[in-house]
Amino acid sequence: MDFLERLNDHLPVVHPIELRAWSKEHKLNSHGFRSDEFDERSDINVLAVGCSNVFGWGLRKDGVRFTDIFVNLIKKKTHLSVSEWNLGWCGKSNDYIRRVIYCATRVLKPDICIVGITDVDRREIFDIQYDPEADTGICDFLIAHYPKNVPDNYKHYYEAQFALLGPCEDLSNLFFNYKFIELFLNSQNVNWLFVTTGRRDPLDEFERYVDPDKYAGRISYKDRASDRKHPGPKSHRELGTALYQKYRETYGENYNHDHKML
Fold this sequence. Notes:
The radius of gyration is 18 Å and the shape is globular. A hairpin with a 4-residue loop joins strand 4 (123-131) and strand 5 (136-141). The longest helix is centred in the C-terminal third of the chain and has 21 residues, at 167-187. It has helices at 16-25, 52-55, 66-78, 94-108, 155-164, 167-187, 203-206, 233-251; strands at residues 44-49, 82-86, 112-117, 123-131, 136-141, 191-196, 215-218. It is of the alpha/beta class. A five-stranded parallel beta sheet has the order 2-1-3-6-7, with helices on both faces. The protein has a two-stranded antiparallel ribbon with strand order 4-5. The chain contains eight helices and seven strands.
């Protein structure tokens, strides 16, 4: 099988120790994601990709993420089965989001894709030592971690990346990632919307470059999750409802090529 057609080659490696720790807090699938199993295909299939706010970090109760709210509203209105393939992952960048949407869409073939645009100053870095099985040679660059909270084996990545960062480069990287996602999903005939989930809203400077019909809003911080940092259930419920309403405005009653809202 071709490398680009193997989903496992494009998902983050989950270490057994980390997986056990997360399993105590969240119900995870066999790949380590807080998601339905990827081989569980339903009448309608929704792919969601983003950072910790798409994963639902700090939300101990299942079914309260904005993606869950969106899916549950579809179920309620259509009376059809819906799979939620949530590939949200903590600390991930828009680079990761673009890469995984490209790979996962080709394998999973979703009807709907929800894109969670995250902080623009994050990066996904690969080097010559990249080994997906050992999880080496790849670094998720989070500027908020620099320099105090950077492991020794990642410091050289951070030092090199930090020297290149700047507002213009951040927006250039966002432009590349957004436009790739937009063109790719349109080419695949996938219904899609995006939300912004980062600390700051990049659309303050980027709005003229996006399709307003695809933008469903930004997650708020009206309440907090159990970690006191991430958005809480009320914030997720608000965004999930707005996402569903925007979907209806943009795509009407069409959820895939075979089913329409009853």
